[in-house]
Amino acid sequence: MKKSKKFINVIISIGILVLLWSIASMTGKDGRIIIPSPVDVAKAIKEMIDDGILFNYIGISLYRFFLGYSVAVVVAIFLGLLLGWYGKAWDIVNPIVQLLRPISPTAWFPFIVIIFGIGNLPAIVIIFIAAFFPVLLSTVSAVKKMDKIYLKIASNFGIKGFRLMTKVVLPAIFPVIINAMHIALGSAWIFLVAGEMVGAQSGLGYLIIDARNNLRYDMLLAGIVFIGVIGLILDKAIEVVEKKIGSKWGNAY
C-alpha cells in the first residue's frame, strides 16, 4: 500500500513537470519557440538512439563517474581514518585541506587539461576532486567525535590495529560517512558534466556543448533530462547500498 502510494505520487509529480514543460515550450519571444517541447525532445532522443550516440555517451559518462568517485571515496575514507586517529598529523594537514577545499574543481580545468590532455582523465580528475574533500572532512570529524565507549569495549576484547579500524571505528562512524558520500555523489555528478564540456570529446557534458554549438536545442534538453534522471538513479542506488551495509553493521535506518 505504501509503495503503490509512493508510485502514484511519483507519477503525479512527473505529470505536473511535463505539463509545466509543455506550457513553457508554447511561450517564446517574437513568436519563436525557445524551449523544445517534450515531443521534440522525445524525437531527438530517438534520433540519438538510432545514431548510436546516446547510450554510448551515457556509458562513457558513467565509466568516468564510477572510476573517479569510487577512487575518491576509498582514498578519502582511508586518509580520514588515519588523520582522524592521529590528531597531530591532522593538525599539520588541516590548513592545507582548508586552503584547497573551497577552490572549485572547475578552477583547475586549465592545468588538468594541460597535464592530462583531452579524454577520460580530465573528467575523472575533476570528479575525484569534487568527491574527495566532503568524504575526507566528514570521516576525520566522525573519528574525532566517536563515542569512546566503543574503544573501551574493543580494548577489553583485545582488538587493536587494523581490526580496530575495520571492525569498530568504521562501523561506528558509518552513518556520517554515508551521508558525506550522498553529498559527494551529487557534487561529483555535477562536475562530471562540467568536466566533459571542457576536457572531453564524448559523454553527456560533451553532448550538451556539441548540441548547443549546432543549435540543436532539442538534443541539448534531452541531454539535460538524462543527466537529471541518471543523477536520481545514482542517489537511489547509494541508498540501497546504505541500507545493506547499515543493516550488516547494526545501523539500519
Provide a descriptive summary of the structure in words:
The protein is mainly alpha-helical and 253 residues long. It is built from ten helices and no strands. Helix 5 packs across helix 6.
Please identify the oligomeric state.
single chain
Task: Label the overall shape.
Answer: globular
| SS strand fraction | under 5%
Radius of gyration: 22 Å
Number of strands: 0
- N-end to C-end Cα span: 20 Å
Order of helices and strands: HHHHHHHHHH
Reported for the largest beta sheet, the result is: none
Q: Quick check: average pLDDT?
A: 85
User: pLDDT under 50 segments (min length 5)?
Assistant: none
- The assigned structural class equals mainly alpha
**Residue share in helices?**
over 70%
- Alpha plus pi helix count: 10
